[in-house]
Amino acid sequence: MRTIRLHADLPLLVGAELALPSQAAEHAARVLRLVAGDSLTLFNGDGCDYPARILSSGKREVMVLVEAKQPLCNESPLPLTLAQGLARGEKMDLVVQKATELGAVRIVPLLTERSEVKLDASRMEKRMAHWRAVAASACEQSGRACLPQISPALPLQAWLDDLIPDTALRLALLPEATRSARGCKFSAAGGILVVGPEGGLGERDVCALRLAGFEGLRLGPRILRTETAGLAALAALQALHGDG
Predict the structure, then answer these.
(1) CA distances from 62 to 69, 110, 149, 236 (A)
(2) Euclidean distance between CA atoms 235 and 228, whole angstroms
(3) Strand ranges (DSSP E) for the chain?
(4) Same domain for 59 and 161?
């Protein structure tokens, strides 16, 4: 039987009776048509699942009883950050969704030399909320109980200036690179992977990345689209060095 999992952005305590947040309540009542007595699993991003039971289900409010707390151990031992050049339309939604399923711990939208997407502060705030909802939905589906951190979009150089010095392996997908995914060596700090937008990384981008200690990574003889490249790299790195 499929387990129904819902993200609830609120404290969850065993024995607590609480009202689900509006989005989760609407999904439970209108989409899943859950009623009093039905079981479901809640999570809030703290790494645990919380089996719960519906006490009442109405059009405006769904009350649940939290019955247990179950720590999960399905996070990858390889923490990876995906720094993705902002892509157009639904491409960024796909990247956020699949990167979450593939275990990325952080997703950073980047504004690069060839970025075509321009967002003002208001639109960026809405996109951030949307991407976080996409990530939460991906966690519901994939069984993750830890949500990836989604950072505000930053210009590449500003993001590089703010990077904390550590032992994480710094990689950038570059067609001319010679290093393969199999040849990467990771420490416990994991890695950071930079992927360019539709037009790829520009010369100034590549120069800035190399000055910041990033090394080129090559996936193979074919050039992949921006919404495919980072996801393929994450899958390869996880299979070779993480979940595999």
Answers:
(1) 20, 38, 28, 41
(2) 11
(3) 5-7, 17-19, 39-43, 48-57, 62-66, 70-71, 80-85, 106-111, 149-150, 154-155, 169-173, 191-195, 215-217
(4) no
- Tokens 């993200």 correspond to 7
pLDDT in tens, 22-35: 999 999 999 999 99
**CATH number for 209:** 3.40.1280.10
Taking a C-beta distance cutoff of 8 angstroms, is the pair 205, 216 a contact?
Answer: no
What are the tens digits of pLDDT across the range 208-222?
Answer: 999 999 999 999 888
pLDDT at 114: 84
Distance CA 130, CA 93 (A): 9
Indicate whether 210 and 228 sit together in one domain.
Answer: yes
pTM of the predicted model as reported, rounded to 2 decimal places: 0.92
Per-residue confidence (pLDDT) for residue 124, from 0 to 100:
80
Query: Is the Cα dihedral 189, 238, 97, 141 positive or negative?
Result: negative
Torsion of CA 24, 28, 32, 34, to 10 degrees: 170
